[in-house]
Each structure stands twice: as C-alpha cells, then as structure tokens.
C-alpha cells in the first residue's frame, strides 16, 4: 500500500500539466495579438490615398457581431456550470449554442470582408488594410479553430461522458473562448470605435 501511495506522488498530474501547457500557449497568443495591435496602431493612418476606417466600417454590423460573440461567452459559462453540476445533456447543449453563435460571428466577419473587397479595399490596397486584415483575420481564424475544437469536445462528451479528461478539455476550450472574447473587446475598441471616431 505504501508503495502505491509513493508511486502516485512520483507520477505527475498529466491533466494539470496539460492545462499548464495551454496557459503557456495562451501567453504566446497574447504576444502575437499584442504585436498585431501595435502594428495596426502604427499603420492605421497609412491609407495610401485609399479609404480609411471611417469610410469602410459599418458600426451597426460590428455591434451586432460583438453582441453575438459576448453572448457566446455567456453560454460558454453556462456550459461550465452544467458540467460542474454533472448535467451532460445541458453541457453539450450550451456548447452547441456557443458554437452556433461563434459560427454566426464568423459568417458576419466573412460578409464584412467580402463587402470591403468588393469596394476595392483589399489587403494590398494600403498598409492600414494589411494591418486590419491581419489583426481581425487572425482573430477570426482563432474563432474558427475554437469552433472546430468545441465540436470535437462535444463529440467526445457524447461518446465518453463527463470524465477528468473531458472536464479538462471543456475547461481549456472555455478558457480559449473567453480569451477570444477579451481580444475582440480590444479589436472592437481599437479598430472599430477609434476608427470611426
């Protein structure tokens, strides 16, 4: 009995280590987005005679996108509450609603980009637009990755139920999703609100 107790202490907590590894990844993402924000702030006035933020951004659509993404953060929180109560069906349901809201957000962003490209505001038009598409597009790509990841976790939950492994995965995807919402608040403020003011 003493030996098995010692063995338990010799082996690292793999789920804890994986969560810690995710925190390290998240810190690298903070640095990436910080770099993109800095580049955008420096280049936002370099329009090369082309359209600037005030001419391009339609704030009503961006406010709708923001509301949808922030609502998805709330539903993601409800999924976590359901998991802590051991309610598998509610957990999968709330994750599904979160994924649906995320997909709507992506659809609105793709629509915004397509509209801007039709207006002639492409990534090669100016340094401002290069920085804009890089920053906002990178965030959108992260949301898309989060959607795929969330669907994989939902499939694993449906197959295996709530286990220590699936709990860790739900906690990590929730952390990732809330991080993306925080980044979007900065995007909304720095890119859109400051752009149209």
Strand content: under 5%
**Overall pLDDT confidence:** 91
Question: What structural category do the secondary elements indicate?
Answer: mainly alpha
Number of helices: 7
Report what the structure shows.
- The chain is mostly helical and 197 residues long.
- It contains 7 helices and no strands.
- Helix 2 packs antiparallel against helix 6, helix 4 runs antiparallel to helix 5 (88-118) and helix 5 packs antiparallel against helix 6.
- The longest helix has 34 residues, at 127-160.
- The N and C termini lie far apart (69 Å).
Properties at a glance:
197 residues; 0% strand; 7 helices; mainly alpha; disordered N terminus
Please summarize what this structure is.
The chain has helices at 2-10, 14-43, 53-56, 59-84, 88-118, 127-160, 164-196. Helix 2 runs parallel beside helix 7 (164-196), helix 4 packs antiparallel against helix 5 and helix 6 runs antiparallel to helix 7. The radius of gyration is 20 Å and the shape is elongated.
């Amino acid at each position: 009995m003493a030996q098995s107790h010692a063995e338990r202490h010799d082996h690292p907590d793999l789920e804890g280590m994986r969560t810690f590894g995710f925190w390290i990844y998240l810190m690298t993402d903070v640095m990436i987005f910080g770099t993109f924000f800095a580049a955008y702030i420096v280049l936002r006035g370099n329009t090369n005679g082309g359209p600037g933020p005030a001419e391009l951004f339609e704030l009503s659509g961006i406010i709708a996108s923001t509301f949808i993404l922030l609502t998805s953060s709330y539903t993601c929180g409800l999924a976590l509450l359901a998991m802590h109560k051991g309610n598998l069906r509610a957990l999968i349901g709330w994750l599904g609603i979160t994924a649906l809201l995320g997909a709507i957000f992506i659809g609105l962003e793709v629509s915004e980009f397509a509209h801007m490209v039709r207006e002639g505001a492409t990534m090669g038009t100016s340094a401002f637009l290069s920085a804009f598409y890089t920053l906002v597009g990178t965030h959108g790509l992260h949301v898309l990755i989060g959607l795929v990841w969330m669907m994989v976790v939902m499939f694993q939950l449906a197959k295996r139920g709530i286990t220590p492994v699936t709990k860790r995965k739900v906690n990590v995807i929730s952390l990732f999703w809330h991080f993306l919402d925080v980044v979007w608040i900065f995007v909304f403020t720095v890119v859109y609100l400051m752009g149209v003011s």
